[in-house]
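Good morning C.,

I know you're traveling, so I'll keep this short. The sequence:
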Amino acid sequence: MKPMFRRIWGLMYRHLALYRRSWPRMLELAYWPILQMCIWGFTARFLAARMGSPAIMAGAALLGGVLLWEITLRSQMGMSISFLEEMWSRNLGHVFVSPLRPFEMIAALIGMSIIRMLLGVLPAILLAWALYAFNLFTLGPVLVLFFINLMIMGWAVALGVISLVLRHGAGAEPLAWGVLFGLAPFSAVFYPVSVLPAVIQPIALLLPTTHVFEGMRAVLIQDVIRWDHLAAAFGLNLIWLAAAALLFARQFHQARVRGALMSIGE
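The tokens, ready to paste straight into the viewer:
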């Protein structure tokens, strides 16, 4: 077990070293979460000033949605971009000549995803409290379950993106930035599922993120923990993650057979 953890830490350290003396990289981690929080925070403040107390509750749900969505987004991008950096540096062939196994690389990418997500989202959470008096931690211990579900969903999407990059090469790189945004309208981030067209609602309920955001609004607005939504989120996450892992295993094997690990990105 000890050599396995040493290999995982070795790959993580390789990525952490890129941030150690690069303030632009560090700034980029927090830039977008803070920018999103500021835009929607000022929007919520404007609505509260115009509409009174009902808009204050709606503004809290809006800010909560923004901050929790960034957890999913940063988890997905943290994992995807760490993989892409290996590809851009033509390092994938060297990595897998070593004793590193595919699941160890995924574990290292997940570790980097957690670090990147925390460095990006925590400053936005603190600024939301300082600027708008919105404390995300008032959700209570259930916030940990929301975090876990959203991170797992981000990892599942990232595995899917990595699989497509292994299959299609550099042409699939833009998916690392755009694919999760395509799921946002169906995830009910800023509004309940009930406002979606009836034909779309069953699709939305197949996403773990939808149940997390429905659960968040129940806690903020009704002060009720919807355990049914949390159970659905965990169950769907298991399905999404298993499907993504199978896709990755298949595409990684085919990339190895084709010799694409040495040439990918060219």
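Safe travels,
E.
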